[in-house]
Amino acid sequence: MNLDLTDEQREIQRLVRDFAEGEVKPVAEELDREKRFPYEIVEKLGKLGLMGIPYPEEYGGGGADNLSYALAIEELTRADSSVAITVAAHTSLGTWPIYAFGSDEQKETWLPQLCTGERLGAFGLTEPEAGSDAGNTRTRATRENATWVINGAKQFITNSGTDISGFVTITARTGDDEISNLLVPNGTPGYEIGEPYRKMGWNASDTRPLSFEDCRVPEDNLVGPRGHGFKQFLQTLDGGRIGVSAMGVGLAQGALDEALHYAKERA
């Protein structure tokens, strides 16, 4: 088995490492201290094609593989975890459900904006009464004529309340024994985005509670077949774990880098 990186993978790794060292690391402490979302960095990442690395070029993505994506997240985390989780959550949780399960219309509408970083996507799974027990989702969506009426709440949702957030895909009970996924655009009446959480870390990342009160979306906003939401979000979380694992490796490497630098200064 050949475990060497390909030329393309090395090129992406080198590109992101240079970007992280030159653009992210110098402002990371300031962003964290001010709890300021890194709009400028996201814009630059989008122009470099790094907001949609594993998605097809036809949608504006990078057309690269998942290992290239993981390498990019690792390099960003070496400099700043807030920037890294912004990209990881957007790519793995925000964009993936639309790419994997969305209709042709949903893909054509959203993927070009997501892959270029013009818009951020969010994924709303966790609830106040159903955190790790995701199958206990209590948010409900009732079909009335040609719309879904949503009532419920989500919490700890990343990328949901920025100026460039486009939508959240949420899990909701559409029947007694079924869970489905629904796309709710930002600005939809009845969809309220709460204030950012006060956190111990990742302060430049956007994380908020969401609430839905008689929030109406068209029936076409169903993502994938009705009743397939549980299976879909398990697949989505599998992809999300790749990014989180890459963050763990990158954070450890960044900590080692800083420790070595400090030790050499003291020597």
Quick tags:
267 residues; alpha+beta; four-stranded mixed beta sheet; four-stranded antiparallel beta sheet; globular
How would you explain this protein's 3D organization?
The protein is α+β, with helices and mostly antiparallel strands and 267 residues long. Helices cover 46% and strands 22% of the residues. It contains six helices and eight strands. It has helices spanning 7-34, 39-47, 66-79, 81-101, 104-115, 229-266; strands at residues 120-124, 140-144, 147-158, 165-175, 178-185, 191-193, 207-218, 222-223. The strands form two sheets. The protein has a four-stranded mixed beta sheet with strand order 1-4-5-8. A four-stranded antiparallel beta sheet has the order 2-3-7-6, covered by helices on one side. α1 runs parallel beside α3 (66-79), α3 (66-79) runs antiparallel to α4 and α3 (66-79) packs across α6. The longest helix has 38 residues, at 229-266. The model has no long low-confidence stretch (mean pLDDT 95).
In short:
The protein has 267 residues and is α+β, with helices and mostly antiparallel strands. It has six helices and eight strands.
